[in-house]
Fumarylacetoacetate (FAA) hydrolase
Amino acid sequence: MPNLIVRFQDAAVPRWGALTSAAPSRPEDMIEVVPIATDATTTAGLIAAIDADPALPSRGKAVRIEAATLLSPVTSDATLICQGLNYREHAAEAGHHERKANLFFAKASSSLTGPYADIVRPAGVELLDYEIEVGIVLRRAIRTDEVVTSETIGSYVAGAVLCNDISARDTMFGASFMQWYQGKSYRGFCPAGPVLYLLDPPEAAAALGRLEIELTYDGKVRQSASTAELLYGPAETLTQLSQIMDLKPGDMVLTGTPGGVMAQGTPKLLESLKAFLFDDIRRRDEMRLEMKQLANFLQPGEVLSLRMKDAEAGRDLGGQFSRIVSA
């Protein structure tokens, strides 16, 4: 049976726990966890400890803690690889109606933060955007030319984490030769959690294909999707990544965001990106002017609410609540 694993701040020491109450969705929620008796300091170490002793999360006495103490269940030693335009609706709104290849980029692990931490809008950023995503966390290393299938994916993937791939669009498209890594890697730009949905290998393929996610902003649902809609699923994606790079246990692949982001690939915007490729300031200014006619983008004082569930299994996997603040 899947475990809901949390990582929480206990005095000055981060600790691991198994959630035994309902998963939280706001920082003021009170939850019950069984602290896990392990010296693991990383997500990879925690996964290995539970794989070696599956009863580990059930030993001990439950304690009540405030959800505000929760940290990212993915530790900062992880490599973060992201998929772009991996839902048909999001690809279309970005101007890529026919996806013909998997799109990869990276995100700094120092962007990881807890599910209820504030999101700081960096100085000079005007086009701050959200992207709800499902992150898949590796159970084992990926090496050269691995072939991952639906039958074997449980030996490669330990579980799933709700993520928000916060993006500074003006940095992504306004910096020299368009800096996606920079625009997505500011500190705090990857809220993760509240739980690591830790799956037993035989159930991984089915569970990873039915996770439902939803993002609410300004009182309205802006993004909603199921991982059944992914254009390039986890098995195919990990197989392709193995041809490019090594990945280690505990690393995470963010599987892409559905439609409904603020940034839209209008014909005028796409033309500006081409026309001013070598004029960074003009490209950024044109982009800001065009995009601000479509949306206000995230402003200090506003909040985002995100949720994830495995509806078929009847598992509510909790949610995030993030407030936007100024630098």
Remarks:
- The longest strand covers residues 315-326.
- The domain at 73-326 is CATH 3.90.850.10 (Fumarylacetoacetate hydrolase; domain 2).
